[in-house]
Design a protein that fits this description.
By secondary structure, the protein is of the alpha+beta class. Helix content is about 35%, strand content about 25%. It contains 10 helices and 10 strands. The protein has helices spanning about 65-80, 100-115, 120-130, 140, 175-185, 195-205, 215-225, 225-235, 260-270, 285-295; strands at about 5-20, 30-50, 55-60, 85-90, 145-150, 155, 165-170, 240-245, 250-255, 275-280. Strands 1, 2, 3, 4, 5 and 6 form a 6-stranded mixed β-sheet that branches. It has a 4-stranded antiparallel β-sheet with strand order 8-9-7-10, covered by helices on one side. Helix 2 runs antiparallel to helix 3 (about 120-130). It is globular, with a radius of gyration of 19 Å. The two termini are about 15 Å apart. About 40% of the residues are buried. The structure holds cytidine-5'-monophosphate (C5P). The site of cytidine-5'-monophosphate has 11 residues, from strand 2 and helix 5.
Length: about 300
């Protein structure tokens, strides 16, 4: 019997992001705070017995879709063959610092082993996730979490309130590897100052008066001054904090109250098209867990 599930695959923002030093393996050591938000893609997954055949269709053409890579890694790890179909509807903008591709890959890791009747242990899922991309393991967890190392070493933080947030994604594509290169970090042992500053910030969450920081802003704002002016506008409209997410180009602002966020959304929509301004809220780990339990409730395994 074929099995079918429809899953929501959530986006993330980085509430803080510090890039420390370059590592011998070419990656950079980070200190970041990941947070899931309510902006989501939808993926329909069908799975039936047979020789392996993978079909991926959706509302966008995505080269090197991580859904395909994640499927290959699940089939290898479970030693299963199957006919698997995906139909996705993307709402999370691509290459925008919102982790859409990584979230889709994690959705495959969470759903497919169960649909194949071969659930994988958490350690194995984390290992597969890290091999697919630095942001993928976070989406196995959701909520708020500190990410260290490449971003794959995760420490869950207590749930933050479901603060309303506004995202502005002005259609600028920022290449992540280029943004890292532009930072020109050395391989020298890291300066401890940013670590202490980061630690003090984490300990004061969810106080919205804290000074959040994204190291990529320095290099990305230089190239795209428009992003800096978006952040300044969000601050003027009362958002705290207002910050770029990941290596950009999304700039988000968090509001303590929904009507404040909605007022900011109305003001920003005069300047940005509907698909460039998204009103969302933070999604806690308990809501993320409940969403995944609901999504996979009917699946054996
Ligand atoms: O892991 P992921 O495939 O998402 O990384 C994309 C690129 O971003 C890497 O090839 C690397 O250039 C850069 N990166 C990095 N340090 C990290 C994460 C990513 O230098 N911690």
């Amino acid at each position: 019997m074929p099995t079918h599930v429809r899953v929501r695959s959530l986006a993330k923002i980085n509430l803080d992001l510090r890039v420390l030093h370059k590592r011998p393996d070419g990656y950079h050591d980070l200190r970041t705070i990941f947070q899931t938000i309510s902006l989501a893609d939808t993926i329909d997954i069908t799975c039936s017995p047979g020789r392996t055949k993978i079909d991926i269709n959706g509302n966008l053409n995505i080269p090197d879709n991580l859904i395909a890579k994640a499927t290959d890694s699940v089939l290898a790890a479970t030693r299963k063959t199957a006919r698997i179909g995906f139909v996705f509807s993307k709402r999370i903008p691509l290459g925008a610092g919102l982790g859409g591709g990584s979230s889709n890959a994690a959705a495959v890791l969470l759903a497919l082993p169960r649909m194949l009747g071969k659930p994988l242990p958490t350690e194995k899922l984390i290992e597969l996730a890290a091999s697919l991309g630095s942001d993928v393991p976070f989406f196995l967890l959701g909520g708020a979490a500190v990410g260290l190392g490449r971003g794959t070493e995760l420490y869950p933080l207590p749930d933050l309130p479901a603060f309303p947030a506004l995202l502005i994604t002005p259609g600028i594509h920022v290449s992540t590897p280029e943004a890292y290169r532009a930072l020109a970090r050395s391989e020298a042992t890291l300066d401890t100052a940013p670590i202490f500053a980061f630690q003090s910030l984490v300990s004061r969450l969810p106080d919205s008066r804290i000074e959040c920081q994204n190291d990529f802003e320095m290099v990305v704002f230089r190239q795209h001054p428009q992003l800096k002016s978006i952040r300044e506008k969000l601050l003027k409209l009362g958002a705290r904090p207002a910050l770029m997410s990941g290596s950009g180009s999304t700039v988000f602002g968090i509001s303590a109250k929904k009507d404040l966020r909605d007022r900011a959304a109305r003001a920003m929509r005069r300047e940005f098209a509907g698909d460039q301004a998204h009103s969302v809220q933070l999604v806690s780990r308990s809501r993320y867990d409940a969403m995944w339990r609901r999504q996979l409730a009917g699946v054996r395994g």
